[in-house]
Amino acid sequence: QCCVMFCHLYEYHYVNEEKTWTEAQQYCRENHTDLATVSDMEGLKRLLNKSPAMTEAWIGLYNQTDGIRRWYWSLPKVEFIEDETEWNNNEPNDLNTENCGSLLKSLKWNDISCRRRGHFLCYDRNTSEKFYLIKQEKTWFEAQSYCRENHTDLPSGLDQLQGERLKNVLSSTDDKFVFMGLFRDSRRWSDGSSFSFRHWSKEFNDEQYNSGQCAMTVFDDEGRWKTENCAVRKPFICYDKLILIKKNKTWEEALYYCRHHHHDLVTITNLDEQRWVQEKAKKASTDYVWMGLRYTCTLDFWYWVRGEVVSYKNWAPDGLMDDCDMSGAMETGGQH
């Protein structure tokens, strides 16, 4: 039987008490995990699915006081890598605040005002065509909404923004600049997540950089986000990310239990997650707690069952055995 287990979940909790954003953050960290983080459209649907008797509520997105803007891709889980870019000469130049990316017919990139209207590309992972040139005049935020509603998203990442097929698609427009899925802002998630997902209202003004602004979701059909002074008192949404299941099970039984009742066995990809999980592990009744870590004999490597690469590691000195029937567990004491 061996071990109790950590189940990974993403459960939202609506708190109908009016607090400032900072007070809401403190409440969520003390009673749950943190203020709500939303990583993709599926997560947004889950957040809106249990729409409570409130019209709007704080979520965990806020503007940094340092105001440092970073580039992100619109398509969730596509990471922007500084060394993998195709900027045109002297770009990005941020002329009069340019926070969105556009594509030239040469497939070189320019930064451009998100408020400018122009043609745009949509990416669709479910069709053979993949790229669609939409010859409608829209702002970047309107274009993003259109692509998410009718296709998958704006094209994002170097892999999607290369190739002769894309050049052929662009050849039919007279516009010099065509919007793609690149944007930059200074906002961060309260829990430290690097998720690029944003769902702003179509009237959102990306040029307003007020460090006292926090994000809230509006409970209507689309659940779009707006910014508000962080000192205003509102209801808020917390989330839970992890639960300790105090049942002794084998690893396979634990995996089935978590997937059936919650989401999956827990994944740890960085030091912050390690510290957070090990605090919870101290409450376990067994010497070890199962995680979603597994060894594959066929391919000869360790992997997380949710698909992440094992980049962060914290093996005990004698704790690593590459064997066919091995799974990963965390020590509940010592160095975890």
TrEMBL record:
Pfam families: Lectin_C (PF00059). Residues 12-123, 131-239, 238-324 form the C-type lectin domain. SMART domains: CLECT. CDD domains: CLECT. InterPro entries: C-type_lectin-like, C-type_lectin-like/link_sf, CTDL_fold. This is C-type lectin domain-containing protein.
